[in-house]
Write a structure and sequence with these properties.
Leucine Aminopeptidase, subunit E, domain 1
Length: 163
């Protein structure tokens, strides 16, 4: 069940926060930056994972914090072309595969709820009307609440309905 909500995703009661990044991303803008500031160990672990595994776009990397919050980094953007370069733009192809992988992980790990922003519609450069159908395709029938934070309001807890 997908619910569009307004608020600050950092205040979500969902078990999982999913967001879009690039392989080797620096997490220096947007939601990724907020997550990096809130969970610096998550960012360090992501960079280590990328260094060791050299992941490709279309995958998902999952990190569990000591407070029980799970961060799912969806590899929606192309990797930066150099050490100081910015990541490439997101593609619908990458988002489709990353959401498919998120679905598999959510089912195998028995996630109870997921929150995600308007994936790849900020820095990723895509249009929401193209991305939303992919979210619906892969997550709508999971049988768990999926909260799409379609409007950001800093430090505001969204009204999330779990039943």
């Amino acid at each position: 069940m997908i619910q569009e909500v307004s608020g600050d995703i950092l205040y979500t009661s969902a078990q999982v926060i999913a967001h879009g990044v690039a392989p080797n991303d620096h997490f220096n803008v947007g939601l990724a930056l907020s997550l990096r500031e809130y969970w610096p160990k998550m960012y360090q672990d992501f960079r280590h994972y990328c260094h060791i595994r050299n992941p490709k776009p279309g995958g998902v990397w999952v990190w569990a914090g000591s407070n029980g919050k799970i961060i799912a980094s969806l590899l929606t953007r192309d990797a930066p072309m150099g050490i100081h370069a910015s990541p490439g733009k997101a593609t619908l192809h990458n988002i489709n595969y990353a959401l498919k992988e998120l679905r598999k992980v959510a089912q195998s790990q028995k996630y109870t709820s997921i929150a995600l922003p308007r994936l790849a519609c900020g820095m990723g450069g895509l249009m929401w009307e193209d991305v939303y159908p992919l979210i619906t395709k892969h997550l709508e029938d999971l049988g768990i609440p999926v909260f799409v934070y379609s409007n950001y309001s800093k430090r505001v807890r969204a009204v999330e309905k779990f039943k």
